[in-house]
Task: structure prediction
Amino acid sequence: DGLETDILVGKRLKIVTVLVLSGITLEKMLQKAPPSLKPDYVIQSLLDLPSLKIGHGYKKLVSSTDTL
Result:
């Protein structure tokens, strides 16, 4: 996933965003990103996606506001 493409579009559309770190974005890039480009959630791989509980709320795996 890209912060300046995928995440930015999601934020502009006011939808929950999930960054998959198996894409082009590295944790180091995420740490330096402005708040407008930080995703709501960060997962290591698409295999982690089923662990997010979608419905009445989202299960927090790793939030972009944590120590990343």
The chain has two helices and two strands. The longest helix spans residues 3-12.
